[in-house]
Structure formats: structure tokens, C-alpha cells
Request: fold
Amino acid sequence: MAETGTPGTPGDRNRHQEHTGPAAHIDQQALDEVVTFTSDLIRMDTTNHGGGRGNERQAAEYVADRLADAGLEPTLLEKAPGRTNVVCRIPGSDPTADALLVHGHLDVVPADPAEWSVHPFSGEIRDGVVWGRGAIDMKNMDAMVLATARAWARAGVRPRQDVVLAFTADEEDSAEFGAGYLADQHAELFEGCTEGISESGAFTFHTGDGMRLYPVAAGERGTAWLRLTADGRAGHGSKVNHDNAVTRLAAAVNRIGEHRWPQRLTPTVRAALAELAALRGLEPPEFDAPGFDVDTLLARLGRESQLVEPTVRNSANPTVLDAGYKLNVIPGSATGYVDGRILPGGEDEFHATLDALTGPEVDWAFHHREVPLEAPVDGPAYAAMREALLHFDPEAHVVPYCMSGGTDAKQFSRLGIAGYGFSPLRLPEGFDYQALFHGVDERVPVDALHFGVHVLDRTLLALRGTREA
Reply:
């Protein structure tokens, strides 16, 4: 598979070291460790089956042991047995500076070995690529953070601000046993944190015509998982029944599935569209002009429109139907589930639309709900991330974007922490990063991990400045 090879020429691959300079602290041990840690963590089956069924303990202990070995003091916390989180604070040199949160989850979604080219929990390293569930989502980032923290300890480096590391459970379900538990019950561990970085951003996006983008997430749509309930009159399947709960639910689900949501352009999405348009040599979009049609603009952007298209509207996708227990019996009730996503500022529209689409015969309620997020793209945090990416890939372009889904940043936002998606990876042409999230044959190139550690080191130390301990 050509796509899994190491990107670039040998000269390109060595460029990371050439650009590091005297202020960088990533050594060969860190480059070796990030690969080993990624592989080791993948081999630990931390599958989150939902409904409270999961176990992150082994991976959490692995992380804690390696932090402790670097002279740090990790804390293990559990809301339920086996649902283990790790939190560790790296003290900064300036106690008055705002702290930074760096977080990653330890759980993964299920994987069927029969569908994979390699066993999903093998952590196999082959042809310069680490294979397995979590290689992208997101044990790679966990490994980068570990390798960076240990490199700092060896080099005697202290960031100016405190850096709080959090490795969480249960992100792939409700976060009840992970970031939600930490934010609600252990807020003191995150004292002083004003900004946070985590998954789903700073990966290479190839436009298909030679241009490389690094989208940095500065927003997330809110989670609105819905339960729909229709009641009716139970009866024999051979009789006329105009109060059929299944019919009522099916009609509502069809209306929801067919609904075309109006465009809603948040500041992050506008910034993304404006930068992408400029890269294509298009006129600056007039977002507030009468009749402005975002779909027309997206059609002119090319492949990179994929970064923005899922986040120009609210959405609601039916996913589960449940009704009846025998073919010739009309049930008295029927239920369905809908995966809804809400843009910042779109809550009222979402509620009103669902009321109209479900109608008077179907009730809806939130099964699980989390807030939408937006973070500044004109401040020092975004600037530091952008600079670090361009330092190691100067011919690329960094653009903001909004995630269509969500991360643990939602839970940590309760503590006033602005979240960014920033898990840096330089990926070769043809490597479909987004398709590998929850996909088959998930994998990450070794060179991408090396790039990520260099970028992460530079970013974290640039956010507030550093001095040697």
C-alpha cells in the first residue's frame, strides 16, 4: 500500500531535526519512545462498548508509570472500577501564568479482527507504520505527550506556565467516567487552566493539486443525541389501526432524515471559508450579502470543502429504530434515536425544528447532550500552533476549522477552558486520516509521530515562553 509509506525524500524526513535549533528538546530517545508507546498502548484493549462497559486501567497504569519514571507525580482517579484516568501537573517557572491543559483519551471504539489486515490490538510496526485501533484516535497523541514530557525531564526544561496532562477514560461514549467525572469532581486539578489542546486537528490535508493544509480545530458542534417516542393503540396486525405507533414514528423519522437545514455560519467557519477562498484565489466571501449561498462557495473550493461542509448547518440523522415484538401484533409504542449536532448559537433553531418535524404525535427528549464550542483564532494560542506547524513544514498552510463531532473539550469547557484540536501529524498523499477514525486498518506512519513530537514540543514551549531549569 503506497499510502502507508514514509512521506517525502530522505532529506524531507530529516528536516525536523534540521529545523529544531538550540531551543528544541526532542532527542532520539523521544523519537524512539513515541513509536514504542503508541504500539504498547494499542496492544492494551481499552475498547469502550458503551453503557459503562469499558476498562482503561492497564493503559492508565502504563501512562502513570512512565510519568513517574520521569520524576513527575501522576494521580489515578476512578469513578468506577477499571474506568481509570490519569492527571499530572508539570510545574512551570512562573506561578502567576495561566496553566495549559493537554488531554487525550485512553479508550477506543470496538474493532472486528475479521475485517482488518492485521489484528486491531497487535500494535504491529510494519513498513514504517504502526497499526491498530487507536493509532489515530488517539493513542498516538497520548504517546506524543508522554514522549515530550519525558524529553523535557531529561533536558531539565520547565515551561513558563504549568502544563496539566490528563489521560481520560470514556471519551468514546458519554465521558461520564472520564472528563465529565474529572471536571465535576476534581476541578481543583485543573486550577489555572485557561486553554487546552487535544485531538482531531493539525493533520496534513492534501488538496489533490500539491497543496498541503493543516486544519487546527477551533470549534465543535454540540452533541444532541435524541430519543423519540411514539405512542399508539396496540392491536392485532390484521385490523385497521389509525393509531399505529410505528407509523407515527416512521413518519417523524422520515421528516427528520429528509429535512434540509438552513446555513448557519459561525465565526470559526467563516474564518475557515475566508482562508480557503484566499488560497484558491477567489474573491473574499460576502457572508452577510443577501442571497449568499455557502454551497456555491463550497463547490468552488475543491477537495478542501470537506473540512467545512459538515459544519455549515445543524444536522440530525436517524440511527436506531425499536418497535414491536411479534409480526402480527401492532405495538403500543415505538422508539427511535437520532444523532443531532448543533452549531454554536444554533440551539433555539434546533429545538424549534425538532418540535415541528416530530409533530404532536411523537415526543422527543435529549438522550445525551453536550454544548457546542468555539475558541479564538486570532489569539496567541492559535498563533503558536500555526507557527510550530509551519516551522517544520514551511510550504504548508494552516487553517482553522470546526469539528463536526465532539471531544472531551466539551467537558473541560465547564471549567472555563477554551479547547483546540491539535494532534500534529505530517501525513503522505493518499493517507485518508479522517476515514481512519473508527475505521478499519487504522494506522499511523512512524515519521508522522516523529513530526508530531517535534511540533508538540515547540508549541507547548512557545505558548508562554520557557527557561532552562
